[in-house]
Amino acid sequence: MAIEPLTLEKTHQPAWKTKLDYIVETMREMSRQTDPQEMVRAYVRRIQAMLPAERRISLSRRGLSAPQARITRYSEWDAEINPWQNQNRLPILKGGLLGDLIHANEPRIIDHLDLADDDPAHDYLHDIRSIMAIPLYDQGEALNMVVIGKSEPAAFDREQFPEWVWMSNLFGRATHTLVLADELKHAYEKLNLEVEKVGQIQRTLLPDPLPQIPTLDLAAYYQTSHRAGGDYYDCFSLPEGRWGLFVSDVSGHGPTAAVIGAMMHGLGHAYSGPAFPPSELLTFLNTNLVKHYTSRIGAFVTAFYGIYDPANRTMNYSSAGHNPPRLKRCGGGTVAALDRAQSLPMGITEEAIYTDATHTFVPHDQLILYTDGITEAMNGEGAIFGVERLDRVLGSCAETAEDLIGAVIRAVDDFAQGHPADDDRTMIVAKVS
Description:
Elements (H helix, E strand, L loop, with lengths): L14 H17 L4 H15 L4 E6 L7 E7 L17 E3 L1 H9 L3 E3 L11 H4 L4 E9 L2 E10 L10 H44 L11 E8 L7 E7 L5 E8 L3 H17 L8 H14 L1 H4 L3 E9 L4 E7 L5 E4 L4 E4 L4 E2 L13 E4 L4 E6 L1 H4 L10 H9 L6 H16 L8 E8 L1
């Protein structure tokens, strides 16, 4: 496709200033480009004004063996072809002048070109008498090349040749960077879509709706800091009318943590050992995590598991290094922690021993199970929300579990002042009726 040359003529200023102004305009235009195809189009249009020529050919030998060369652009084509999207439509020359030039890895000027009729380049350069071949280097090799042709012999100034090689290679690197950025963008979009799917699958593993447990009003909140996260919670129906309440937090964030969180779901529902006490389940989870998963990737999991008996409002519980749940006794106005059965996080060593403790509730007690994304929520100044602020919110003795979750999340959001969540945030509230 022929390109009309642009005029560089400006009155009342020296030639060097006119050229400098045009180069500055060119660089500014290049810097605004985000699409590599449009960038090449704009660059060729401007360079044609500075170096008029009858013929321009762009070559590539990426993925080809000597002496093959692929023509990626040709000034006489009626329709433009995007070489990054339609490579299979581009002609490949098998040898000849153009193949020799690009595989030689060197810049070259030919003052008197006389091509044989059977040279593969003849159809592209048959009326050209001098050419300037500029290799574009990548990893030290001329993987691309620009060939500029003129109809008159000895038409190129060798004194300016180094400048054209320099400038063309800088542009080539800029274009290559833009191509890589575009590929990275599409790869990220594809990866982001996959992570979103992981997050969607992860949410299907959570109990929805929450079960109706006698003497308990239950509500839950779940927010990942990324598309997918490592927090997980569950409810287990157990013999004799008991219910298991489980919450866990995998170290790290994102898809890796989400996969381990999904393993927690699978292992928890595959457990066929004794339903009681809760330390039995944590021991089972820890053993399997260490043997098969976490020891290979350096991850660990904190968890709290409580077994609630509606008949006498008691909870037997065990903790694997998890934040102790907060207990708000509305009748007495006190806040305490279920912290009498703490042990190591799961996934570190099979030697970890998990213990049990029991707590008896009274009507209107509020139990808050949470992950550290709640208490470690950060504001713009780097301060964290903390347990004390959480306890102050619990002092409201909200009427329902859902009301209490709403009050905590509003307090966290107000504190963060728009600072994005750095960690997953999960909370289960159980209000004893």
